[in-house]
Amino acid sequence: MKFDFDYxxxxxxxxxxxxxxxxxxxxxxxxxxxFQVSPSIQEVVHDRCDYNIxxxxxxxNRFYTSIQKWWLQRHGIGFEKNxxxxxxxxxxxxxxxxxxxxxxxxxxxxxEPVYHMFYHLIERNGRYVQTNPLLYINGxxxxxFNDLEQKLSNPKTTMMILCNPHNPTGNxxxxxxxxxxxxxxxxxxxxxxxxxxxxxxxxxxFTYMPFMKVNDTCWNNSITLVSATKAFNIPxxxxxxxIIPNGDLCAKAKTAFAQAMITDPDYxxxxxxxxxxxxxxxxxxxxxxxxxxxxxIATEFIKESIPExxxxxxxxxxxxxxxFSEFTENVDGVCDLLRSKEGIFLSKGSEFGPSxxxxxxxxxxxxRQVLLEALLALRGGLHTxxxxxxxxxxx
Length: 395
Description:
The chain is of the alpha/beta class. The protein has 14 helices and 14 strands.
């Protein structure tokens, strides 16, 4: 194997959020991979650090051209440089877009369960979270379009935050889904902000559909946020790009970004993004294949060895969304017990909204041996006397 995804790097005592916050043996929670980044990123970071002077930095034009080329070649969509804006991260940009394009007291719609920071950003800005719960039928998720239209028709709903692909369910929204979302949002004058940070973490043989690519309606009524940080495992070198094809909308957004002072690059992050998009394709393809096998192994292990729980099938992300509803009604308590007794840290589904309370999210972007050990710890932890006693007492 050209890239050694089996290699296990000791990240303890490196101020790692994933490892040093958790202080457990198997931190399978935050969306952060335990794979060393592509050689192209390593090289550019080493070269820039070797200058030994880390001064104010201009944004290279290649930041934009690398993204343009990537989306054209990999996802079949082109856009002009004047529709793009460097920002320091997807969440800072999303925060600014909420402030600029909605007013206090208005509703921002999300499809729930969804990434927990969406809720926090909306509420911290004095807006209200309007949820469109996804339908969960026969172990799979789909969009409740009747409910979606009802929520979008509320005059107080002025923005929809779309997660494409979806975190935590791993759904890869197809063109028909996105087209219907776009048409409804246009009908009710609701702006779509599409978080597409997971765009390139997709099972081999599949590809995601950019929201702005669907049709002219989606093109003209959207702000798309993209980044190399998730797919190429560089969240500590955070940067992102807002793509806004509508000229009037773009001008307003760029002014807001500049006012918020999130348009200046640091010494490393833009260059790491360039290295990812210019030279990281082979690494990304190998990573996606490795993660797909990890997901398959984990799904089959759970089906055969822990039949009380169920992995939701997905085509995107390196995150498993696992249904615990047949095992217990107190999933949060089970997660706490697994963490304290077995050293396996999983994300509680309740963090992603009320409909996630019977689920957990598990990050499988780690060396395979670590995954296998974590799965054994999960099985053992769920079947201990301590767990059985806890479940009896919590009924």
